[in-house]
Every structure is written in structure tokens, then in C-alpha cells.
Specification:
The chain has about 150 residues and is mainly β. The protein has a domain of about 90 residues: Ubiquitin-like (UB roll), CATH 3.10.20. The protein contains 2 helices and 8 strands, in the order E-E-H-E-E-E-E-E-E-H. The protein has a 4-stranded mixed β-sheet. The radius of gyration is 16 Å and the shape is globular.
Length: about 150
């Protein structure tokens, strides 16, 4: 588990950097954040960031997201050890999506998904029309029960 004492006390709104003004957060104060693997270009996951998460990500050089289910900041890897080292941050043309180019680190490098897979996008639509179905096409690299104890 990563200990991040900077998560204990959020920065004041006046301490947030000016560049955040260019980001178009939604009505809930969130922006979608796509984590793309450096080198391969694989999309590992999509999460959300609020202003503080984005500011912390830029300052730490590691991905920090807003967990909608936990209703708190979530430093990727805080439980699993599968940290995302941020190589580059980009903002899309409309200013409403953030792209993180990351190096996926951890006890078993390459696991980004809580299911123990490399990517959260491990299901592919196969078949046509009424016969279409989602098929799991990527293996579990490590049993999630062993990751989240």
C-alpha cells in the first residue's frame, strides 16, 4: 500500500494551478480521464478526476482519480500497488477529456484493472445482430483476491 500523506489535507481552492481553468469539468465537477499505456498505446482504463485529483496527478507524477463509488480521491495503486507513473498529460480539443500516458507499475507490472487484467477493456463484442455477445478475450494475470487482501 502506498502511503501518501499529501492526500490527508486537500489544497485550498486558491492553491490550485491556473491551467485547471482550461479544463471543462461537468456539473458534478468531474472530467473523464483516459489512461493509455506508454509505448504500446493500449487504453488501460477510464476513470474520472475532479480539480484536486488532476492537480495532484500533475504535482505527484502519479495518477490520482476521483472515485465515484467511494466519494473520495483515489491514488491509483493505493491498495493494489499497481501505480500509474504519468509520463504525459493531454487535454482534448474541447477541454472536457484528459488523456494520461502512463507506465503501469506494481508488484506484477502491467496490471491496471481491479479484475487482475492488463486493461479494463478485456471484453470484445463478437457475432452480429441478435447473436452478438461480449466475450472475455484477455487473461487474468493475477487473482484479484490475492491483490486486494
Amino acid at each position: 500500500m502506498i502511503e501518501d500523506t499529501t492526500m490527508d489535507t486537500p489544497p485550498s481552492p486558491t492553491a490550485l494551478p491556473d491551467w485547471l481553468a482550461d479544463v471543462r469539468f461537468d456539473a458534478d465537477g468531474l472530467v473523464p480521464a483516459i489512461a493509455q499505456e506508454a509505448g504500446t498505446g493500449h487504453v488501460l482504463m477510464v476513470a474520472f478526476m475532479n480539480r484536486e485529483a488532476l492537480a495532484r496527478t500533475a504535482a505527484l507524477g502519479e495518477a490520482v482519480y476521483w472515485s465515484r463509488s467511494r466519494r473520495r480521491l483515489w491514488h491509483k495503486g493505493e491498495e493494489s500497488g499497481h501505480v500509474q507513473k504519468v509520463r504525459e498529460l493531454r487535454l482534448d480539443c474541447d477541454g472536457d477529456v484528459v488523456l494520461l500516458t502512463v507506465e503501469q507499475l506494481g508488484h506484477q507490472p502491467g496490471i491496471a484493472c481491479h479484475t487482475g487484467r492488463h486493461s479494463c477493456f478485456f471484453r470484445r463484442l463478437e457475432g452480429q445482430g441478435a447473436d452478438s455477445r461480449w466475450v472475455t478475450v484477455d487473461p487474468v494475470l493475477k487473482d484479484p483476491e490475492l491483490i486486494y487482501r
